Amino acid sequence: MNKANLSVFASGIGSNLLAIHKASMDKSFPGKLQLVICNKICPAFELAKSLNYDTKLISNLDKDKFEEIAHQELIKKKIDLICLAGYMRVLSPKFVFKWKNKILNIHPSILPLFPGLNTHKKILLNGVKIHGSTVHIVNERLDSGKILGQFAFAVKSNDLDFLIYNIKKYENLLYPEVIKKYIWTFLFKEDKFLNYKNIHIDNVVFSY
Ligand code: GAR
Questions:
Q1: What is the domain range of residue 28?
Q2: Over the range 121-148, which residues count as b (16 or more CB within 10 Å of their CB) and which as e?
Q3: Whose CA is nearest to atom 3 of ligand 1?
Q4: Number of folded domains in the chain?
Q5: Best of 8, 37, 105, 107 to mutate for ligand 1, by most ligand atoms within 8 A of CB?
Q6: Cα 106 to middle of ligand 1, angstroms
């Protein structure tokens, strides 16, 4: 089966990286993870190395330099799709233009609500009763590209750690599914996955 070459950009713990890795172990997953890029030493970087991925640490550089090096690495590896997974540096419009429609991001809020940082804190501070995450195409404006998939659940406690735990648990289910669908529909131009899926897992609503 023809597979798209994937790169993950990460700066954090790496739970979404791990979820993509696990999904890609399945023969029917249409992507192969070829390159992990981190902008700092972080658990995701250590995880990628321990999983034997080609892992590049591009740190202590200004954005232009970082993106120039990242771009060359991506070209070298013939990357078809970049998945931002807890990558905490905003990409420049120039970089996004070069990789137009080939960068996905997972953001911990139900976009277009709460773009930017500290979404969980903002949810709790404002007493927001529904929270979730969004997978979207990255465009030149922060957290505002086309939405590909979301999940939502009721916020039942003020415990920040519990909220983050739950967000990641369901992100780890959503992101690989959306990547799979995007590769089939956008990269491979197959129409068999075009229909929206609306499913419930543990009272969490997923739509993608
Ligand atoms: C995830 O919750 C992701 O949505 C968020 O960082 C976390 C990374 O977790 N991304 C952003 O905030 C991007 N603006 P992970 O390192 O365990 O995958």
A1: 4-207
A2: eebbeeeeeebbbbbbbbbeeebebebb
A3: 86
A4: 1
A5: 107
A6: 7
